[in-house]
Amino acid sequence: RREAAEYYRGQRVPERMEEALNALFPLRPGDLYGELANYLSKYSKAPIICKLVGRKVLDGVGQPTLEVEIYCTVKNYEQRICSTVMSCHSQIPENALPETIEADEKERNDSVNTAVEWVNESLNTMLRDLEPTDQCQVDKMLGEYFTNKVEEKKEIQKQVEEEEAAVEDTLAVTPPTPSPASPPGKKKAAKAGKKLSVAERPIPPAEPAEPVLCGSLAIGGTSLAVAKAGATISHIPLYSHIALLKHQQEPPEEITLPLPMVTLLNCEKTSPSKLKLVKEVMLIPPVQMSLKQGIERVLHIQKEMTRLLESPGKMPDPQPAESKKGRAQNPGKKGLPQFLKRISHLGCLTTGYDDVEQLLLVMQTACSNIGLQLGTDVYLAINCAAHELMDYDKGKYEILTGTFKSPDEMVAMYGELIDKFPFITALIDPLRKEDREQWSNICCALGSKCYLIAEDAATCISKLKTDQNINTPMCSGVVLKYINQTKVSDLIELTGILDGQRHITILGSPDGESSDDSLVDLAVGLGARFIKLGGLSRGERVTKYNRLLAIEEELAKNGNLR
């Protein structure tokens, strides 16, 4: 008893109990012991990470991805705090060959298996006993771990290359006979003749795809899971936790919600349609409306658009638009658009058109039928995905089947398109990232009329930061995606740089989206201008719109909504 009394006095237990009883007596709570537990809990040790669990799960399109669970020791007990499911982004275009797609699927499967192994073994040991609220320390350790893995892979590749070179040296004993040397000579002559036939200056070659280290999902998944755990432990929403991290623990007085870019149509480039220039058509509600009202408006347009596409014979002719030559352009005289009765993986309608003007005029019709006007009541954004259009043999973009344009001609074409349809407020990836000169030209020509956004035209987040500068073509803003080895601290640093350079930050969901809605909290906490989530169908995408609406309601209730 004497030892126990000394131990409790050393821990100041009698003093704390007296304080608690004196504080709670005037209140006389109904659950006295519950209030005592709450009062004394502030003297307990901070929760620490005790276990990470990684497992292989499926994303919204049935592809394997990574789930990371965080367990913490809270008041001497192990508790499951939260989990996060990573979204996967494929760099394989829609029109890729079957063998390319198969190789990509195998690579993804291997990457997820490696990521699960990293989480359950190395990262589980490395992050044990750290506080989940210490995001900077966690991300620093994750970054160092990833750097070491990259160096290990380089060493392995170097050894393989040396072994292959040694084998080649042993095989190269006798010189090749002169007979097979003649066909290459003929091929060189053919190539020289081909070069003479090309009048335009050569285009910059395509930059190699960003290498993705096998298992890199573990870094991004663990970083985000720790951020969610930190928010949960602190009893605040994830977006508030992210905002505190970005603003050095000073909570912003007001929070501005990002405007949603809602995908209405997906014009797949593998469809039989002639149009290749448009991948996504997105609607942006006006800033004067609440998000709830804006999404309801987009839903009304979507219903009317569906009705028009399902009954093209009843489609009223839209108001003809005057071309520069004075001729009225009427889509009624063109072939009817092909409507594929299915929902795209982006959560929107899938359809096809003959050209861009037909598509935009039908959009105008759908809006006017329900009393809305494009450019006033709702705005339009187009994802051109120009990197998927380049024909490298011809050195030109194939905007329609059999119709090719050089990078300079693309700039002129976009200028005419915006002049004719001024309700287009944003063009995403109008050019490849390699056409930097044309990016500068299009920004000078159209920068005051619409946003020019780099999505695939921007490099991955890990390479965007170069001497505190944004290593992208000249543009209005960048679409950031939380994928692979991206860490929460990376997004915070990068959005700070973008804010300082007056670039627009857009957080976008990858093609392979999951049901995890953390992306919305990241966008709100980071102060993104727009958020690109896909369409208003498919559960993994709708859950994010629902989260956005819930945040709007919560901020409005607390008086923090700007």
Q: What's a quick, concise take on this entry?
A:
This protein is of the alpha/beta class and 562 residues long. It has helices spanning 2-10, 13-24, 32-41, 98-126, 135-171, 182-196, 217-233, 238-246, 291-310, 356-369, 407-420, 436-446, 461-464, 488-500, 518-526, 539-558; strands spanning 48-58, 64-74, 77-85, 259-266, 280-284, 321-322, 328-329, 338-343, 349-352, 379-383, 390-391, 396-400, 403-405, 424-428, 451-454, 465-466, 469-470, 477-480, 504-508, 530-534. Helix 2 packs across helix 3 and helix 4 packs across helix 7.
What this model shows, in words?
The chain is α/β, with parallel strands linked by helices and 562 residues long. It has three domains: 1-43, no CATH class; 49-158 and 212-235, Enolase-like, N-terminal domain (Enolase-like, domain 1, 2-Layer Sandwich), CATH 3.30.390; 238-310 and 341-558, Enolase-like C-terminal domain (TIM Barrel). The protein is 43% helix and 18% strand. It is built from 16 helices and 20 strands. It has helices at residues 2-10, 13-24, 32-41, 98-126, 135-171, 182-196, 217-233, 238-246, 291-310, 356-369, 407-420, 436-446, 461-464, 488-500, 518-526, 539-558, and strands at residues 48-58, 64-74, 77-85, 259-266, 280-284, 321-322, 328-329, 338-343, 349-352, 379-383, 390-391, 396-400, 403-405, 424-428, 451-454, 465-466, 469-470, 477-480, 504-508, 530-534. It has an eight-stranded mixed β-barrel with strand order 4-5-10-14-15-18-19-20, surrounded by five helices. Helix 8 packs parallel to helix 15 (518-526). It is globular and about 95 Å long. Mean pLDDT is 85; it is low at 179-198 and 318-336.
